[in-house]
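FAQ: What does a multi-protein file look like?

Like this. Sequence, then tokens, then the next protein.
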Amino acid sequence: MIKVGVVGALGKMGKEVVKAVLEAEDTTLVMAVDVVGEGTVIANDVKIESDLKQAIQTKKPDVVIDFTQPATIFEHVCLYMNEKVKSVIGTTGLSETQINELKELSKENNTGCLIAPNFSTGAVLMMMFAKQAAKYFNNAEIIELHHNQKKDAPSGTAVKTAQLMAESNPDFTLGNCPETELIKGSRGGTADANIHIHSVRMPGYIASQEVIFGASGQIFKIKHDTMERSCYMAGVLLATRHVFKNNDFIYGLDNIMQ
């Protein structure tokens, strides 16, 4: 049985994670942490705690699942590493430099960690398919749409998608004319391989992404829509089971879905 701690347990994603951990046959909830609701009983004898370090040291989870805030996630993962607690991280916003630092810290402490921009198996397949399609197109852009409470832009999923596509093709602006933005930012942000990413923030959305490929005489689109946050739970549990058995550092769920 995998002893799991959930950080951000009262958030929208945290509540789904708690439910998934309780329902899975091979996981048990031993710790729940949030900045609000201290003392609230969320399952059996598990109460919300606010002191993350103390909770880890007293409850001793095998794996911590963290869906919190971009502003604190780097500090959290450093804590997990130093306490030698394995972690599954769903919070986006980590810089490439921070990810590299965490990778080294994982090696130093021989402690597994899996960070994923997206835990939906469908979204991960979308990224994998985009990488494959990138071999055959020299023009592509990404549109990502999220709820208006998402604090970082572009999404980690869009950034990861661009990185994967760039592995197949170094430039996706072949044949474009010189451009002038009459309104700054109208062409979106520019990611790896000159891929333009456009971020939409709108109430009503959870998470959606469309990758658009173009070539003479044709348009090819790959799109994924999230209807409910429950779609992420299969990926979260897959990642939890992986880090429980391994001490490696992984960025992207695609690396354990192949």
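And here is the next protein:
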Amino acid sequence: MTLLDSLNWRYAVKQFSNQKVTKAQLKQLLEATRLSASSYGLQPYKIIVIESLESRKKLIPFSYGQEKVAHSSHLILFAIQNIVGDATVDRYIDKHAQMLNKSHSELSRFSDHMKSALAVKSPEQKQEWAHQQAYIALGNLLTSAAIMKIDSCPMTGFDNEGYDKILGLKEKGLATSVICPIGYRHEDDNQAESPKVRFDYNDIVMEI
């Protein structure tokens, strides 16, 4: 399939089958998601993969009864850092220095610039910025999954605090941002046959 074929094929699955995404496919999908664009490359989030049915069943009460969080192949969760700041930058600079074989002193101006850019934001703005980065990665996950013929359903309809408590994320310095069950559509999922409703090209695209 071409890219456009893949995007026309995908939809927000309502009912998943019992078919599992293989370990190799999952690794490839997560690797593609890892390579997502991110402001300054900071990636202020973790990608959490939940396969355990027992663990996912505990999340149903905090998912407004949406059982597909449990009855899918895997549940992918994006969790942002609770505190975004100098430590976020230092972590990236350490990796940058390692990958490019540069000293920290050579990267000091870059580091200071990023820290200054974050410092002017309020704690709430930093959290919103981190959520935005997670959503960029989510978009890449959805597109990559479609190309791989893996179904998905991005979800924001859940109790974030409930998820954080069940998964112990606060203790890890994280907070749930968005979730996405993945797997394969069930043959009884009528949503698969529904036309994709999107505004026309000229209604969405403005050429200036």
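Q: Is there any per-entry metadata?
A: Some entries carry free-text notes. For the entry above: Residues 3-37+45-81+131-204 form a domain with the NADH Oxidase fold (CATH 3.40.109.10).
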